[in-house]
Fold this sequence. Notes:
4 strands
Amino acid sequence: MVPAPTGSPGTVVLTFTFEVRPTPTTETNSSPKPVLLQTGLLPGSTCDAGWGASWAEWAVPVTGGNVCTQTVVYEEGQWINRDSPQIPFESPWM
Length: 94
């Protein structure tokens, strides 16, 4: 847990940078497995189009917290949002 700076109202914003490299499955289909993407959701905020509100243990130490989530799948040579295929998906790892 990161303590808030002295004199602050108690809110700490953490930014995470990561790289996701899907790996091919061992089945006859060589497409990568679906990838779950999540980002923390600040209180009072809403998720962008194509993202769904959810809860994850990692979001807030001990208690968990709200997150925005989406699952992307590789189909026909491109990554798409499985739950909202009509919304263009821009890959964070390419």
